[in-house]
Write a structure and sequence with these properties.
With 276 residues, this protein is mainly α. The chain has one domain (2-138, 186-263). It has helices at residues 2-21, 27-45, 47-62, 64-73, 78-91, 101-121, 140-148, 165-174, 176-181, 187-207, 215-229, 234-263, and strands at residues 130-131, 134-135. Strands 1-2 form a two-stranded antiparallel sheet. α1 (2-21) packs across α6, α2 runs parallel beside α12 (234-263) and α3 packs across α6 (101-121).
Length: 276
């Protein structure tokens, strides 16, 4: 079933590519446009679920000060705290579980799309295919290794699956002249990687605004994803970057709308209930 789903999505991507080349756009450039078009199509199909997820997350974030007030007022009465918390959720039409369920539904779709793009970037169709300088079939590691012409002791080119971050990093420092003389081979993939890291940081910043407990995640996630992305093909990075950018635009719009809605809600006061 999973293989059939991947074949269906791959067929859709190839159909989009053929449609773009049919209007006179070169096949190399068309692959980049096809990936962007497919990413936008997936975002469009998932929009209702994403809308629900982001709205729930934003409302939960806006309710944190009021939840803190309830905890201060009813800290010694767990039943009352649970009752008032659920009443607050109901008043603001918030379902705490609604923020998780859409994400669980979306995750297999995104993994499926990633698998299709990853497999495609390893085929001959993606050999030396570039989009605004980004090598869609090569990763930051492979493009830097090609620029350095990394070979083993026997003078044989090191296979892509045997390249490591530490190996390429150390080789770069010992061959800076060769690295920068072939800068056009890797710089665009590297710029896209840095852009994705920044988009991830900014998206985390929007999600955790006003929550100091999440401040560490603002830095951990971008660094962690940057490390992962070193070995991802440019085609996958292109999808990831476009999807992240669309997610940020959607999140900013939801945040503004939610802020206006929450302004109309009554404010809780911190006086503790009088004892009978």
């Amino acid at each position: 079933m999973w293989a059939q789903a991947k074949a269906l999505l791959l067929g859709l991507l190839q159909f989009i590519h053929n449609a773009i080349t049919g209007i006179g756009i070169g096949t190399n450039f068309a692959w980049g446009l096809a990936i962007i078009a497919l990413t936008l199509l997936v975002r469009l199909v998932m929009h209702p679920l994403t809308q629900r997820q982001m709205t729930s997350m934003q409302k939960m974030q806006k309710l944190q000060p009021q939840l803190k007030v309830l905890q201060d007022k009813y800290g010694d009465d767990k039943d009352a705290l649970n009752r008032e918390t659920m009443a607050l959720y109901k008043e603001n039409k918030v379902n705490p579980a609604s923020g998780c369920l859409p994400l669980l539904i979306q995750l297999p779709i995104f993994i499926l799309l990633y698998g299709v793009l990853y497999d495609l970037t390893k085929t001959e169709a993606f050999t030396n295919v570039t989009f605004f300088g980004v090598n869609l079939g090569g990763s930051v590691l492979t493009t830097v290794a090609n620029a350095l012409n990394l070979v083993d002791e026997a003078g044989v080119k090191i296979p892509d699956d045997q390249l490591g971050v530490v190996m390429v990093f150390l080789s770069s420092f010992t061959n800076l002249g060769l690295l920068f003389s072939n800068i056009s081979m890797w710089i665009f993939n590297f710029i896209l990687l840095i852009l994705i890291a920044w988009l991830t940081w900014y998206q985390q910043h929007l999600t955790s605004a006003g929550n100091p407990q999440m401040s560490m995640m603002n830095w951990f996630m971008p660094l962690f994803l940057t490390f992962i992305c070193f070995s991802l093909p440019g085609g996958v990075l292109l999808y990831w970057g476009v999807s992240s950018l669309m997610g940020i635009i959607h999140q900013v719009r939801i945040s503004r709308k939610t802020t206006e809605e929450m302004k109309q809600k009554p404010t809780l006061y911190q006086e503790k209930p009088k004892s009978k």
